Amino acid sequence: MQEKTQIRALKFIMILGFAIFALGHYLWIFADLPESMGVKGIIIVAACCALGLALSLPTKIYLTMLLMQWEKPSD
Description:
mainly alpha, 3 helices, 88% helix, 0% strand
């Protein structure tokens, strides 16, 4: 039971990371935040993209390793 809640939490963190990354991309491409705010806009966009990637990558790696463990034939 604890493993299921841990995986659910990791999936939530991964989806949150993708959402924050998408927000950063939206602010950069469609809202033109760097052009309107200058350096502060660039920092905001870069922080959103970096935080989104930082939240999404480790959980994907963990879930992949967990899946490989489940598929490993038992001895």
